[in-house]
Amino acid sequence: MLKRNEQLIKTKLLQYLFPSVMMTLALQVGNIVDTMLVGNILGTDAMSAVQIGGTILLFIQMPGYMLGIGGSIAAGNLLGKRDREGASKLFSATIAATIISGIVFMLMSLFSRQFALLLAGSNSLTKDVAGVIRVTFIGAPVIGIALQMMNYMAVDNNPSLATWYVVLSNIVNLIADYLLLKYTPLGTAGAVWSTIIGYTAALVVLIPYIRSPKRMLSLVNPFGGTMGVFRLAVITGVPSLLSILCEMIRNWAMNIIIIRSAGESAVAVYTVCLNLVMICELFLGGIIGTMGTIGGVVYGEKDYFGMRSLSKNIAAYSYIMLGVLMALLLIFTRQAAAMFGIRDGELMDMTITALRIFVFCLPFYVFSRFMSIYYQTTEKTGLSNLITVLVYCVALLPCAVIAVVIAKAMGWSCINAVMAAFIIGQGLTAVIVILIVRLRYRSDLLMLPENDEEVLDFSVKPEIGEAVKVPREIKQFCKGRIDAAKANQIAVAAEEMTVNIIKHGGRDVQSIDIMLCITDDTVMLRTRDAGIPFDPTDYTIDHEDFEIGGIEVIKSITDRIIYMRMLDFNNTTIEIDK
């Protein structure tokens, strides 16, 4: 028996990994350097004001983040199910919803001072916080569209364009940051204006995306029968929405806890610790993010072998990178704190100790981050939501309150107690998730079905000697399941498709995945390869040029042929009615 191998999935992971890491790297570097510039040019009080006002940034990111991640995963699932029309409807409806919500947020800029008083209270930071909030609301439409298009371009065969969008926007952002903070009286508002300018300038990247021949998603009437797919995007995106909402609540609650227990200066320490997570996101976020981009399509195709392979490799890469990052952060803690403008001796000592405690929550953070995105991708949004609520609020905040109460009673540092609460809260989240999956669902963490006995899944090398084995495997599998005539038809179609891929797919074809599925109504054959784009449904014989052998034969003996270019793979499905 020929067996399925991991080659195509591994190849695709490596192909998408670099753009995904670069996209996250550029995005997080922009956020981190923003904070560094504010801290070094305007001072640590201004850095604290940006941190407090950043809660509103999370608030306005909700629609774009939810519909961008949720929509792109749902669109990938639909493309995996060969529903290009549904994916385009979903794409159009989510873009329209984000624009409308952005306009509503712009009107909310009139109430910036009221939001600042709610978040910071009446103190010396209120004015700067209000400036940050006002500009953030004004830029909401651009920020929302940016978050969506990053995700859609990645899942729609253009991961490099998604990367360039983020890279370009952050280059412009950082240049504008320095100029506005250094040479204008805008103050903390200048940091937000530079972000909006960067996202706006990078919209030029949409031109090659719109013109890309590999693009599967297109704009259609967003108000014409799209409620069903829009609901799918919302349901899939709820974990992302909940993530931002819970992060917003966490930051608001933690700011209050820290200010009341350790003073305003400790907010700067907390800000540095949060930026430590962003530093980890530089690499880890990009690695884990490939689960949503690749996994949505793979899971939509019901390729459970591929999902297991993808999950195993993403987890391995993530923890290897995490080990390196933790070692560096523990060794160069002082230098990390100094990058954010912390110079004072007492404040520096406080930051170093807090950072070295905080770093040990990161292994649990990676686990929660990976499992949340995995469950979101595999349509188990309940578990994804549970992880989000636990890690940001339900497990963390009570631990923080208890830790501060104990620290005060024992005369310990309250900011160190808060950092320890992150370790306990995130560790507790991991334990709860494992117990629920094991005890309630009686499953391993991936919760994937076992291989269906009515599915044949294998891979062959791009060699003619391998291709001739394909019909033998298929006929053997079909024996006793369908009549011999149907088995012979699908075997002939499989051999012709495999030979054509070998002959005309190009040098990028290193392996060919073949899956045969027998249902109550149909016999379905799927081939997948990384060769040059070729749509057999559009092919007609051109006797003046050359004929790609067997395509007309396949069309004559099958009932349906469906072609999709997904994850830069040729995915061809052939169906014969039973």
In a few lines, what is going on in this structure?
Helices cover 71% and strands 6% of the residues. The chain is α+β, with helices and mostly antiparallel strands and 578 residues long.
Structure write-up:
The chain is of the alpha+beta class. The chain folds into two domains: 7-439, no CATH class; 455-577, Histidine kinase-like ATPase, C-terminal domain (Heat Shock Protein 90), CATH 3.30.565. The protein is 71% helix and 6% strand. It has helices at 7-42, 44-80, 84-107, 112-120, 126-138, 140-155, 159-183, 189-201, 206-211, 227-262, 265-281, 284-300, 304-331, 333-338, 345-358, 362-377, 381-394, 396-410, 414-439, 464-467, 469-478, 484-504, 551-557; strands at residues 455-460, 512-518, 522-529, 560-566, 569-577. The longest helix is centred in the N-terminal third of the chain and has 37 residues, at 44-80.
How many angstroms separate the termini? 25 Å
Order of helices and strands: HHHHHHHHHHHHHHHHHHHEHHHEEHEE
Report the major sheet: 5 strands, antiparallel
Continuous helix count: 23
How would you write the strand order of the largest sheet? 1-2-3-5-4
* Dominant shape: elongated
Radius of gyration: 26 Å
Total number of beta strands: 5
Write down the overall mean pLDDT: 84
Number of domains: 2
Q: Helix share of residues? A: over 70%
Name the structural class.
alpha+beta
Strand residue percentage: 5-15%
Detail the poorly predicted runs. Answer: 543-548
